[in-house]
Design brief:
Blueprint: H1 7-11, H2 16-21, E1 31-32, H3 44-55, H4 68-82, E2 92-95, H5 97-109, E3 115-120, H6 126-132, E4 136-141, H7 151-156, E5 162-168, H8 180-192, E6 196-200, E7 225-230, E8 243-246, H9 249-262, H10 268-280, H11 282-305, E9 318-319, H12 330-341, E10 343-344, E11 346-347, E12 359-362, H13 367-382
Parallel strand pairs: 1-10, 3-4, 3-5, 5-6, 6-7
Antiparallel strand pairs: 2-8, 7-8, 9-12, 11-12
Length: about 375
């Protein structure tokens, strides 16, 4: 059967997150701090909207682009929050999560041999998705710059084959984000070379120490930006699978062509729920954000106390502590911690080659679980 499978797929490594968490399945009393999913359920009124839409008989296809009222609502929301406007008819596409949005963007943009820049450590799908689209991922190591992309570093990687960059902030796995001033400097470099910025801002609502800046809202950036976002993280709607993409009409039209043939449309029930989220869900977002921030303060302080050096993440719900004081690699630490103390974390190597001595810890878990997990990690470290 090996010769039947595409060589590109054969050569592709499985997700470093999912491969590791296959080990967790079936284990009892495991505290999982690995999967990047809110531990909250979708707010009740959003769930009710989905249920009510079914009771009303809304079970048909929608437009390929998505419900018009959802696209209209998104434009109003983005205008109000960031001062950026998109035409609901031509510049917004509803997708099956941000993952489909990223896939569509890459397939719509890439010609064979085109390069896509990816600052690392990065979310696990960026490189493989680029390769599947026929492009070449070019990884930019940010580990020596506090996990932030610096304009001077960015310039070194740009050549004639570079088509664009995937810029994720707040970042999975580090929680690092960028101020408006920092984004302006990155924007100048990208516009000078007429590069596309695929801005994955799915954690934008979960920014703690300063206001999140939408990349497309920067002066002159909108025409070179594909803005990715969704409802999964901020509204605790991972299972509903609703994302959206905003961008220049020519790019959205190209993405819609692929979407028509591969997906058709996002389930109408999920879109109805997303409409409700935009209308009444903001209070819930702020409540969840406050709780994440409380957990952030706890986990960062505790990790540093037990000897795992950890800077404070500025957004998302991940901590990215260093293992240098333990003398263990991320895979060794993660595997032994799971076996000895039944605490599951993600090895840093899942997110890049240059972070072998880091682990990712998700604090999208109850404070009680976090306290018990820290206690077990401390016992593990002291017992080494």
């Amino acid at each position: 059967m090996k010769n039947i499978i595409s060589k590109k797929v054969q050569d592709m490594q499985p997700s470093g997150i999912r491969a590791f968490f296959d080990l967790v399945l079936g284990m009892k009393d495991v505290i999982s701090l690995g999967v990047g999913e809110p531990d909250f359920v979708t707010p009740w009124q959003i769930r009710e909207a989905g249920i009510y839409s079914l009771e009303q008989g809304h079970t048909s296809y929608t437009s390929n682009k998505g419900l018009y009222k959802l696209r209209l609502g998104l434009n109003r929301f983005l205008k109000s929050k960031y001062g950026v406007e998109y035409c609901p008819d031509e510049e917004i596409l509803i997708t099956v999560g941000v993952s489909e949005g990223l896939d569509l963007a890459l397939r719509a943009l890439i010609n064979p041999g085109d390069k896509i820049l990816i600052p690392t450590p990065s979310y696990v799908s960026y490189g493989p998705m680029t390769e599947l689209a026929g492009g070449e991922p070019v990884y930019i190591d940010t580990s020596k710059d506090g996990f932030k992309l610096k304009p001077k570093t960015l310039k070194k990687y740009i050549d004639k084959k570079v088509k664009g960059i995937i810029l994720n902030y707040p970042t999975n796995p580090t929680g690092i984000s960028y101020t408006r001033k920092e984004l302006e400097e990155i924007k100048k470099v990208l516009l000078k070379h007429d590069l596309i910025c695929i801005a994955d801002e799915v954690y934008g609502d979960l920014t703690y120490d300063f206001e999140h800046t939408c990349f497309a809202s920067l002066k002159g950036a909108k025409d070179n930006t594909i803005y990715l976002n969704g409802f999964s993280k901020s509204y605790a709607m991972t299972g509903w699978r609703v994302g959206f993409v905003c961008g220049p009409k020519e790019i959205i039209a190209a993405m819609t062509k692929i979407h028509q043939y591969s997906i058709m449309c996002v389930p109408i029930t999920s879109q109805m729920a997303a409409c409700e989220a935009l209308q009444t869900g903001r209070r819930s977002v702020e409540e969840m954000k406050r709780e994440y921030k409380r957990r952030r303060e706890f986990i960062v302080a505790e990790l540093n106390r037990i000897g795992l050096e950890c800077s404070k993440p500025q957004g998302a719900f991940y901590a990215f502590p260093s293992l240098k004081n333990t003398g263990m690699s991320s895979m060794e630490f993660s595997s032994k911690l799971l076996k000895d103390q039944k605490v599951a974390v993600v090895p840093g190597t899942a997110f890049g080659k240059n972070v072998q001595d880091y682990i990712r810890i998700s604090y999208a878990s109850s404070l009680q679980n976090l306290k018990e997990a820290v206690s077990r990690i401390e016992i593990f470290i002291k017992g080494r």
